[in-house]
Design goal:
Order of helices and strands: HEHEEHHHEEEEHEHHEHEEEHHEEEEH
Helix content: 25-40%
Oligomer: single chain
Number of domains: 2
Number of helices: 12
Shape: globular
Largest sheet: 10 strands, mixed
Strand order of the largest sheet: 7-6-5-4-8-1-9-11-2-12
CATH class of the largest domain: Alpha Beta
CATH superfamily of the largest domain: Alkaline Phosphatase, subunit A
Strand content: 15-25%
CATH topology of the largest domain: Alkaline Phosphatase, subunit A
Structural class: alpha/beta
Number of strands: 16
Distance between the termini: 71 Å
Radius of gyration: 23 Å
Bound molecules: calcium ion
């Protein structure tokens, strides 16, 4: 055989192999489940009606919980926007993914943003033939000059930034923004828009985004996604984030006749006080709950759209949040602290026939979400070795499997990453240690079983317990995540 014809034969065989690989991948991906991942911003894990902890009206979540695995101790390891979102997307802890703080013009100096080179779970799904949609808040790009025109960007300080297509990690349908908190007049960049363009809307953000999500799910005429392929849709709603008063009046109705005392059931809120936290709690509890009721209402619409499209059996649905909200608990106004209201988030997952409805107290860490979801979707082999989280797919499916004895808590100043707060949440205790430049480390220890509202700091009374939790739980986490907080001597 002549060299050229041999070459032609090789090329032809290669083409056949490639073609059959491609069609196998298409056939495989057609059988994989869809994913709908819904996460409102700043919704604490206690604020769901079915839990009976707070008088918040969530009929759709109450029903959904009956069909789902409900994790009652899901932890947002770094309970603030960008660090959570980077952990969610990369499956890595902050020191490994480079997002040590919120993405703003100030932290841009530390290249504090999601890396284009990181392989996110969405990159994996894109390579497996999924259609991928992202709707809502992204907050993973560092603002750069000249800052985009936005009410929350000024010459001196900027929050909002456009995400260029090459930084979208596989999402081919895009309707999102960096940060934008005017919930009744939201603004978005759609898939093909340039940085200076914007869709300006006169509708409550979650409602508008749900209208679009329903179109994406229904996919009339194949407009939004490939009809023959599975899809993953992320719904990142901004409420119940501040400003709490930007909520449609109809969602306030269930709370109209309730007193502050009836609504605030948390013993760690100083109801009568004159402090900032007390004032926020009294002024905003109705609005905060109304926003959650609104989010619940929109979530119900998504669930109905899935059922009407006949997709509910083939779709994994997750409902969670990036972090919680103290709203006056411990006199703290929002999040980014170790307290339960900030640290514990909702986590409900439904996959009919594959995950039995039940409650579980698994200490889920944020980086675990990526490997767990891909493993559930049959893509365990595609999880990069660099992912720092662990898969709980077996435990989700069967109720049995390895259980971590703790989840880490972090707060990192990007300019001094060896300082800040670190801690652990175990099944019973919360330990938090704060390092500042000029003072010895400060310890806080709570017994969440005997003191669920964390009113007592037991650190001075129980030094042996502090030492044991540090040695057996915190230090192994710090070593595993190569945290400079540990110091050279491992102290
Ligand atoms: Ca947030």
């Amino acid at each position: 055989m002549k060299r050229s014809s041999r070459l032609a034969l090789v090329v032809a065989s290669l083409a056949l192999v490639l073609q059959s690989t491609a069609s196998t991948a298409a056939a495989e991906s057609a059988r994989r489940p869809n994913l709908v991942f819904v996460f409102p911003d700043q919704m604490r894990g206690q604020a769901m009606g079915f839990l009976g902890q707070e008088p918040v009206v969530t009929p759709n979540l109450d029903r959904f919980a009956q069909q789902s695995l409900v994790l009652t101790q899901a932890v947002s390891n770094y309970p603030v926007c960008s660090p959570y979102r980077a952990m969610l997307m990369t499956g890595k802890y902050p020191h490994a993914n480079g997002v040590l703080s919120n993405c703003t013009s100030r932290t841009a100096a530390f290249d504090n943003q999601l890396r284009q080179t990181d392989r996110c779970w969405s990159d994996v799904l894109a390579d497996r033939g999924y259609s991928l949609g992202y709707i809502g808040k992204w907050h993973l790009d560092a603002p750069h000059k000249p800052y985009v025109e936005s009410y929350n960007n000024s010459e001196k300080f900027a929050w909002n930034e456009w995400c260029p297509p090459e930084r979208r990690h596989g999402f081919d349908f895009w309707y999102a923004y960096g940060t934008f908190d005017r919930h009744l007049t939201p603004e978005y960049w759609s898939t093909d828009m340039k940085r200076h363009e914007r869709v300006k809307v006169q509708q409550w953000g979650p409602e508008h985004e749900t209208d679009l999500a329903i179109k994406y799910i229904t996919n009339a005429g194949g407009t939004y996604r490939k009809p023959d392929r599975p899809f993953a849709l992320v719904m990142s709603m901004n409420p119940p984030h501040t400003p709490y008063q930007l909520v449609p009046k109809k969602y306030l109705v269930p709370y109209a006749d309730k007193t502050t005392e009836q609504l605030i059931t948390r013993d760690n809120v100083n109801l009568q006080g004159d402090s900032r936290g007390a004032k926020i709690a009294r002024a905003q509890i109705k609005n905060y709950f109304a926003m959650i009721t609104g989010v619940d209402d929109q979530f119900g619409r998504i669930l109905r759209a899935l059922a009407e499209a006949g997709l509910d059996k083939d779709t994994i649905v997750v409902f969670t949040s990036d972090h919680g909200n103290c709203l006056g608990s411990h006199d703290h106004s929002t999040k980014n602290v170790h307290y339960e209201e900030s640290l514990i988030v909702p986590f409900l997952i439904r996959w009919p026939g594959n995950i039995a409805p039940r409650r579980d107290d698994l200490l889920l860490s944020t980086p675990d979400i990526y490997p767990t979801l891909l493993d559930l979707m049959g893509l365990k082999a595609d999880i990069p070795a660099t992912v720092g989280g662990v898969s709980h797919a077996q435990l989700f499916r069967t109720g049995n499997g390895p259980r971590p004895s703790s989840a880490m808590y972090l707060w990192i100043p990007p300019e001094r990453p060896e300082l800040g707060r670190r801690g652990v949440r175990t099944d019973r205790y919360t330990l938090m240690i704060e390092k500042t430049p000029d003072a010895p480390p400060r310890h806080t220890l709570h017994d969440n079983r005997d003191d669920p509202f964390q009113l007592q700091n037991l650190a001075d009374e129980q030094p042996e317990l502090v030492d044991r939790l540090t040695r057996e739980e915190l230090v192994p986490w710090l070593k595993k995540t190569r945290d400079p907080w540990l110091g050279e001597k491992g102290k």
